[in-house]
Structures are given as structure tokens and as C-alpha cells.
Specification:
CATH class of the largest domain: Alpha Beta
Largest sheet: 8 strands, parallel, barrel
Shape: globular
CATH superfamily of the largest domain: Aldolase class I
Oligomer: single chain
Distance between the termini: 63 Å
Strand content: 15-25%
Number of domains: 4
CATH topology of the largest domain: TIM Barrel
Bound molecules: 3-methyl-2-oxobutanoic acid, zinc ion
Helix content: 40-55%
Number of helices: 19
């Protein structure tokens, strides 16, 4: 059976869209999970775009790209030779490095964006691929805005770059304009036109979701000969996003009878990967999102429930276990020990070191003291929170809040920094506002809350509340998250997490303005 290469661009195309930015540590955490998911290629960043992205890509190449059975680590680059040099400097540490170079080829982009002729672009593409090939064998080329590019001209460019050494030809529907039937035909026509190169290159598709067709276009690409799909976890990406990895992988797997292809993805890691990304970015998928949404496996209608109870196959085309979705059953209680926690975490797929289990156990005990029942979802929340911790400059020591009808909400907060404790208080138009005012008074940093979201990790009145915030610190927007059964405390932790991330990003300046 033919194998489709899964090229994950969560850390590049996904990350570059507003609200989804990740720091180097978060990218590394995500890349480790993508390796566990067994994607074939991780596009880790666009190294020329910033020093931070360069470093993040380099660290992914060094630390994830050298693991046993690691995926290829790819960096994006425009066709400028300096861009390619910089890209190589970042990815060269990986066992399997890849350079992905691109240039727009549609007349609209040539005229308004690049102000170059078709001939100039063709030459630049060819030169870029030759330059990249001097560094490594694995070179990918994309004609940006391919779906709106003149077909004959695009094929001339593709012919030239394959001759120059490109081994993957990626066709992007950059603006999400294509419709499945027409897109499939375009992919088939490209294959036909490049017949003389058959066997020398892999044809790839990269679809955006502006018209909601990204997954349909991607799988239609496969039906017409594409053997690589570029996609992102939870479908994150520019504007309406990229094609969603989990939807593509499960469509190919569930309908293997129709598509007749395989992927190497370990589908049991899909749910965990989706949750980790939501946890890192603070942006959750909608409940009805296919595969990983809260309701994706919930049967509400009586007639459906009746059918499922009699036989699951009546209404279920996939099993929750296939994507590693934890059951929502009660798993552990207050008296459960460290070994029981460790073994349940192992069953959930978390392979933790003894020190990590110790930390998770402490959090579990705190939680079990507050909450009668601890569910799988709670454990996932504890462990993903632990995995994505930012080094804590400030830690929350104490919080007291006065709020209710007819009182001015006020809060007293104690924070520790480098062994010293600081206390202050604040008032606000609600308890959260008061707590944040008290934190501002201690840290001396004034943040403006741009976004605030709260969600329950599980059902029940005593569920863990997960708070995600986006805070504007004088033009620098930083995301933060916090979890607790007390939603005011979770809010304080989320805000403090954003401050700690700001300190990490901007260490020196913050050292000067902190208390
Ligand atoms: O959408 C697009 O065209 C891209 C390219 C860089 C492949 O992301
Ligand atoms: Zn894209």
C-alpha cells in the first residue's frame, strides 16, 4: 500500500498566525510530541524571520531531529541565497535536514508584491534550489499561490527546479481558493506534465481553509497522485487556517478502503497532541471539531444512544481509543498512591521520568484534596501544565479576595521572587480585576488584558478551571495560562504565567523594572 508523507507545519505556518505564537521552549515541547505522533517531517520555523525563530528551529533540529527514528526537520526559506544559508545554519544539526524554499508565481503576486517578471522568478527559483542542494539532498520547492498561477508557466518553473535538484514539489493553495474537483484535476495535470521526472520527486499539497475546503482539497490531492500532505494540528494557520492533520490522518485511515493509502502516524497520540497545542497557545478547538472536539464522540440523541448501547458500530465510525482519547471515568482518589498515578499516566501515554512523576504526584494530591473525583482529563491537564511550565520568576504564595454584591471587590496577593516575598493589594470592578491590580502593584508591570477565556477541564461543579489570557504589556502581547479548581486563583496564575513569560522573553529589561 502506498504511503503518504505527513508534513507537519504547526510550528511554521500554524505558529505564524496571530494568537498562536510560541516561544522556543514551547516549540520544542510541541516538536517532541510531534515526534511521538510520528509525523514524517516537522517544519520547525522560518529561520530568517527572527533570531528567536532561528534559535527555535535550531533547537528542534538539535534536540528532536537527532532522536532515534526522528522525523526530518525542515526550515522555510525565501529564494534569496542569504535566506537559504540562514535556514541551513538552523536545520543542519538534524539527522534528516530539509530546506523548503518558495517563491510566488501567480501574476497577481509577481505584479503587486514582487514586481518581477516571470523569467526573473523562474531563474531565482532555479538558483535557489541549486544553492540549497549544495547543502543537502532533501530540498523542497513551493510555487506560492499555485492555485492562481498560470498552469503552463507554473509547470515551466517546476520542470526547472526538479532539474536543479528539488526532491519534493509542493503545490500550495495559498489563499484557500481551490475547489476539490478542480484542485484534483490540477494535481493530476501537473503530474502528467512532469511525467519525464516521474520517480525523481514527491508531489505534495498544502491547502488553506478560507472556503472550508482544505481537508477535502488535501485528500483529493492524494486521489490524484500527491504523496505528501502539509497540514497542522487543530488546523491552525493563517486566516481560516491550514488543513487539519488529525482530520486528514483519520480520513485516510478510516476510509483506507477508498483511498488505498497509509500514513506512519501513531493515531493514538492525536488527542494528546491536540490538547498540548491548545494548552500551549491557550486556544481551544470548537466542541464540534471533527476528531478532537469535545463532542466528537458524544451521542446526545436518544435514538443514537440506544443504537450505540446495543452496538457501537451503529453510530461510531472510529473509536475514541483510536485517537488516544481518555475515557472520562473516575480513575483515582485521595488515597491513591504514587505508583497508581504513574501507571495510569503510562496507560494514558505519558512516559515520565521519576522526578516528573514526583511533581505530578504533588499536584495530584493537591487536586485530590480539593476535588473528590479525579478523572483522566484532570491528569492530562496536570501533566500538560507541568510539561509547558515557564521558569517562574514570580510564584504565587497567597491570595485573599473579597467580593460579592454590595462590596467593592478587593484582593491581597503575596508573590515570591528570588526567595523574597512581596505583598500588595488592589481593588477592581470584579475579583479578577482586583487580583490583577494587586499583581501589577507588586511587579510594577502594567498589563492590559486583551483576551480572557475560561473552560472546565471536566464536568462537575468541582472541575478544574483552565484560564487562558492574552496580555498586552506596552505593545508586547504575551499569552498565559493557569489552572485551579478556584477560578480566581486560576486567573491569577494565568496572568502571572504571562508575566513570567514576558520576563523570560525580555529578561534584562524586566530585571530592571521588577521589584
Ligand atoms: O501557503 C503557502 O503558500 C505557504 C508556502 C510558504 C508553502 O505557506
Ligand atoms: Zn501556507
Amino acid at each position: 500500500m502506498d504511503r503518504v508523507i505527513i508534513f507537519d507545519t504547526t510550528l511554521r505556518d500554524g505558529e505564524q498566525s496571530p494568537g498562536f505564537s510560541m516561544n522556543a521552549m514551547e516549540k520544542l515541547e510541541m516538536a517532541r510530541q510531534l515526534a511521538r505522533l510520528r509525523v514524517d517531517v516537522i517544519e520547525a520555523g522560518f529561520p530568517i524571520s527572527s533570531d528567536e525563530d532561528f534559535e527555535a528551529t535550531r533547537e528542534v533540529a538539535r534536540q528532536v531531529g537527532t532522536l532515534d527514528g526522528a522525523p526530518a526537520i525542515c526550515g522555510l526559506s525565501r529564494v534569496g541565497l542569504g535566506d537559504i544559508d540562514r535556514c541551513w545554519e538552523a536545520v543542519k544539526y538534524a539527522t534528516k535536514p530539509r530546506i523548503h524554499t518558495f517563491v510566488a508565481t501567480s501574476d497577481i503576486h509577481l505584479k503587486y508584491k514582487l514586481r518581477k517578471s516571470r523569467a526573473e522568478i523562474l531563474k531565482a527559483a532555479e538558483e535557489a534550489v541549486k544553492h540549497a542542494r549544495a547543502y543537502c539532498e532533501d530540498v523542497e520547492f513551493s510555487p506560492e499561490d499555485a492555485s492562481r498561477t498560470d498552469f503552463d508557466y507554473m509547470c515551466d518553473v517546476l520542470d526547472a527546479v526538479i532539474t536543479a535538484g528539488a526532491r519534493t514539489i509542493n503545490i500550495p493553495d495559498t489563499v484557500g481558493y481551490a475547489i476539490p474537483q478542480e484542485w484534483g484535476q490540477r494535481i493530476a495535470n501537473i503530474r502528467e506534465r512532469l511525467k519525464r521526472h516521474e520517480g525523481r520527486y514527491v508531489l505534495s499539497v498544502h491547502c488553506h481553509n478560507d472556503l472550508g475546503q482544505a481537508v477535502a482539497n488535501s485528500v483529493t490531492g492524494v486521489m490524484n497522485g500527491a504523496r505528501q500532505i502539509e497540514c497542522t494540528i487543530n488546523g491552525i494557520g493563517e486566516r481560516a487556517g491550514n488543513a487539519s492533520l488529525e482530520e486528514i490522518v483519520m480520513a485516510l485511515r478510516t476510509r483506507k478502503d477508498f483511498f488505498g493509502v497509509d500514513t506512519g502516524v501513531k493515531t493514538e497520540e492525536l488527542f494528546r497532541t491536540s490538547r498540548l497545542l491548545s494548552h500551549i497557545t491557550g486556544i481551544h478547538v470548537q466542541p464540534n471539531k471533527a476528531i478532537v472536539g469535545e463532542n466528537a464522540f458524544a451521542h446526545e440523541a436518544g435514538i443514537h444512544q440506544d443504537g450505540v448501547l446495543k452496538d457501537k458500530s451503529t453510530y461510531e465510525i472510529m473509536k475514541p481509543e483510536d485517537i488516544g482519547r481518555p475515557s472520562n471515568k473516575l480513575v483515582l482518589g485521595k488515597h491513591s498512591g504514587r505508583a497508581a498515578l504513574g501507571s495510569r499516566l503510562k496507560e494514558l501515554g505519558f512516559d515520565l521520568q521519576p522526578a516528573e512523576i514526583d511533581r505530578a504526584f504533588k499536584k495530584f494530591k493537591d487536586l485530590a484534596d480539593r476535588k473528590k473525583e479525579v478523572f483522566d482529563e484532570d491528569l492530562v491537564a496536570i501533566v500538560t501544565d507541568e510539561a509547558t511550565q515557564t521558569p517562574e520568576t514570580y510564584t504565587l504564595d497567597y491570595l485573599h479576595v473579597l467580593s460579592g454584591t454590595g462590596v467593592v471587590p478587593s484582593a491581597t496577593v503575596k508573590l515570591t521572587r528570588a526567595g523574597q516575598t512581596f505583598q500588595d493589594s488592589g481593588i477592581g470592578d470584579g475579583p479578577v480585576d482586583a487580583v490583577l491590580a494587586a499583581i501589577d502593584a507588586i511587579t510594577g508591570v502594567k498589563g492590559r488584558l486583551q483576551d480572557y477565556a475560561i473552560r472546565a477541564a471536566t464536568s462537575g461543579k468541582d472541575a478544574i478551571g483552565e484560564v487562558s489570557v492574552k496580555v498586552d504589556f506596552d505593545g508586547t502581547v504575551v499569552a498565559g495560562k493557569g489552572a485551579s479548581t478556584d477560578v480566581i486563583e486560576a486567573s491569577a496564575r494565568a496572568y502571572l504565567n504571562a508575566i513570567n513569560r514576558l520576563v523570560q522573553q525580555n529578561g534584562q529589561r524586566m530585571k530592571e523594572i521588577g521589584p
